[in-house]
Amino acid sequence: MNQDLKIAIIGAGVFGSYYAEKCFLNPNAVLVGLFDANFPKAEFLAKKYNARAYSSLDEMLSDVNAVIIASPAISHGNLAVKCLKLNKHCLIEKPIASNLVQAKEILSLSDRKPIIVQIGHQERIILKTIGIDNLPEKPHRIFSQRLTAASERGRDVSVSLDLMIHDLDLILMLMQEEPEYVIRKKVIGVQDFFHHSTAEIKFKNAVATLTANRTSNINKRSMELVYPSGVIKIDFHNRRITHNTPFKLNENFYKSEDVKDSLKTATNSFIESILFGNKVTVSPKDGYNALKLALKIDKDSV
Predict the structure, then answer these.
(1) Do residues 241 and 251 touch, judged by C-beta distance below 8 A?
(2) Second label for 108, Cα 20 to 30 Å away, from 41, 143, 164, 188?
(3) Neighbours of 71 (CB within 10 A)
(4) CA 170, 227, 297: angle at the middle one, nearest 5?
């Protein structure tokens, strides 16, 4: 076991517990501790994985080389800036931040410092496993839907930053270009905390229509990609793909270990990037671009 990489987790909620397990099981890192504003939650989780629950974030940061930020989304930016200024490698759960000022500072710090920064857009792993990330054509029409039942988790930011940002990141990965403009079509809810959002995004030679709803009576995560030579339909929820294209796609992608536990894949990638210099799965620039687009959907300008 490599005793040099000491890692800690900020946030002892649902995702914090997932990341704690992945770090605990990784043979190349040591899970040193957890911090949460709710100390008993951190203490409970730390005992489970033979780690320490810290009541002081500063003390915990002084004991580790790397952190995973899995706290509420609204806190990601401030925490990441604090950790990066202390030269800590960071895996930041999505979104990278809740505003562009913080996201820009994260970008600046990651560029200036010899540190690894990765953003938690794990669904890229699915598209890459299917083989959609490297096709000879670009889609000219994209439809995505991400619908979930009401939940208290993620309610500190709008549905665009909570759910739709997954699909925004995937679309930007596929298009490899900035959109020309965004038409905000419909948002429902209190300003900055929208629970339903529909948007149309215009690229040079493509249009993407996205819907996100976190007050739905059904759970649905799907994407339809229309190419010049055919259509690919992905059902993320049921892990199924259908298509009539000539492309050689991995229709059994759900059997891949990387897809079965994409959080484990992303966590291991982060650790290996630190130890061995591998490229991160999602860069801070990727996270910035997805955030910028999400904010444009929520507001007329940012």
Answers:
(1) yes
(2) 164
(3) 23
(4) 40
CA gap 85, 99 in Å, rounded: 18
Dist CA 151 CA 163 (whole Å): 12
State whether residue 82 is helix, strand or coil. helix
Q: Is the pLDDT of residue 30 over 60?
A: yes
* Cα–Cα distance, 89 to 286 (Å, whole number): 17
> Which candidate, 241, 239, 211, places its Cα nearest to that of 225?
241
CA distance 53 to 41: 9
Largest CA distance in the chain: 57
Instruction: Label residue 53 left, alpha or beta by phi (over 0 means left) and psi (-120 to 50 means alpha).
Output: beta
Please check the confidence at residue 154 and state whether its pLDDT lies above 80. Answer: no
**179: preceding bond cis by omega (within 30 degrees):** no
| pLDDT digit string, tens, across residues 41-71 | 999 999 999 999 999 999 999 999 999 999 9
How much is the pTM?
A: 0.94
